[in-house]
Design a protein that fits this description.
It contains ten helices and 20 strands. It is α/β, with parallel strands linked by helices and about 400 residues long. It has three domains: about 60 residues, Roll (Archaeosine Trna-guanine Transglycosylase, Chain: A, domain 4), CATH 2.30.130.10; about 120 residues, Transcription Regulator spoIIAA, CATH 3.30.750; about 190 residues, Vaccinia Virus protein VP39 (Rossmann fold), CATH 3.40.50.150. The strands form four sheets. The chain has a seven-stranded mixed sheet, sandwiched between helices. It has a six-stranded mixed sheet with strand order 2-6-5-4-1-3. It has a five-stranded mixed sheet with strand order 7-8-9-10-11. The radius of gyration is 22 Å and the shape is globular. It starts with 5 loop residues before the first strand and ends with a strand. The mean pLDDT is about 90.
């Protein structure tokens, strides 16, 4: 059997791996034995030469993404089949593989499922796969085969990694079907509501499944309120608000394509319902002149910070955005506000929102502190897998 290249760590730098963290940073490496290519499986050993983990080698700050701490485990077809079967079993136990009521869920959530660099979302009979590392890219065929064996009723596997693989990686990362060929976007179901999913041209894998439970909570609060859904994208919060009995709903996004998709999704669920309107407009500009018009506002912007070097700027952005909402929301209004920036911690986000509240001089109460749903699990050994944070606020 061919031996894997070896990553030898500096003294005491195996301590994070002893706590089952899933990344090895380049600064922790003493030397490399062999000549691994990006994406190869490597053995990680401590300074005494003892094997501690196996993972995918990568060029950059994160040098190894750990796949297994089992010294005897081989990263082969059986490995992928076992991991995907385990993740599917968990989703079934959560009631997410539920047919008529729900056929959209995240099957693999990277580090949260012990598979760094891999994201797989299921929409009806199609799996949409994203690789965030070259190692996952090379394993995509094994992963697709495992999906077809494990996921009941699956017909298509679409590989969408043009925008997610390291930009310097010299691989052919063209989006394509690995299995099947679904020529059109499908209509998926979430908690009994329908939505169009365009994995070919849409953002991410086509829909933001991670807000499922938060949308359900919004539905509870929406009755008889005038709702403003900022950064609406596909309109998920909008049609949940309508089902919850909202008096009116306005969906706003700077993208005309997003507004068109929102209109189509609303029409799927509430045809000819005059309560809804959609506006193509910049968020900050729209928030300028709506004083007291809305008593329920959703702020769900795209990530303000994807890297730590822009963290400070991102926190300023969150403060400004929330301050504007605090200024404009009607008395006794409710604000749902979110950050999906992984590098922004819960504490930092809450502080930014608090600073915005101070600036607005409004009395604000926290009703709920929100996070990602159970099909986006947080690895207890890898806190970086917790990325979505949100607050539900009562504004006097």
């Amino acid at each position: 059997m061919k031996k894997n290249p070896i990553i030898v760590l500096k003294p005491k730098r195996e301590e994070t791996l002893s706590r089952f963290h899933l990344w090895v940073f380049s600064g922790a490496i003493d030397r490399i034995e062999g000549t691994p290519k990006e994406g190869d499986v490597v053995d990680v050993v401590n300074s005494f030469g003892s094997l501690v983990a196996k993972g995918h080698y990568q060029i950059g700050s994160i040098a190894v993404r750990i796949l297994s701490f089992d010294k005897n485990e081989t990263i082969d077809e059986k490995f992928w089949l076992h991991k995907i079967n385990l993740a599917y079993t968990i989703r079934k136990s959560l009631g997410l593989v539920a047919g008529d009521k729900n056929n959209a869920y995240r099957l693999i959530h990277g580090e949260g499922d012990g598979l760094p660099g891999l994201v797989i979302d299921i929409y009806s009979d199609t799996a949409v796969m994203q690789a965030h590392s070259v190692g996952i890219h090379y394993a995509k065929e094994f992963i697709a085969d495992s999906l077809m064996q494990v996921v009941e009723g699956l017909k298509n596997v679409y590989y969408k990694s043009e925008g997610t693989l390291p930009y310097k990686a010299s691989v052919n990362n063209e989006n394509c079907y690995l299995v099947g060929n679904c020529p059109e976007a499908c209509v998926a179901i979430e908690n009994g509501l329908k939505f169009h999913v365009d994995w070919l041209k849409g953002q991410k894998t086509g829909f933001f499944i991670d807000q499922r439970e938060n949308r359900s909570l919004l539905e509870f609060y929406a009755k008889d309120r005038d709702v403003l859904n900022m950064f609406c994208y596909t309109g998920g919060f909008s049609f949940y608000a309508m089902r919850g009995g909202a008096k009116s709903v306005c969906s706003v996004d700077s993208s005309a394509k997003a507004i068109d998709l929102t209109k189509r999704n609303v029409e799927l669920n509430f045809p000819n319902d005059m309560r809804h309107k959609a506006v193509t407009e910049d968020a900050f500009k729209y928030l300028e002149g709506i004083k007291n018009k809305y008593d329920l506002i959703i702020l769900d912007p795209p990530a303000f910070a994807k890297h730590r070097d822009v963290l400070k700027k991102a926190l300023i952005g969150y403060r400004k955005l929330n301050a504007k909402a605090f200024e404009q929301i009607a008395p006794n209004g409710i604000l749902f506000t979110f950050s999906c920036s992984q590098v922004v911690t819960k504490e930092q986000f809450r502080l930014a929102v608090m600073s915005a509240a101070v600036q607005s001089k409004r009395n604000v109460r926290i009703l709920h502190q929100l996070t990602q749903p159970a099909d986006h699990p947080i690895n207890i050994y890898h806190p970086e897998s917790e990325y979505l944070k949100g607050l539900v606020l009562w504004v006097e």
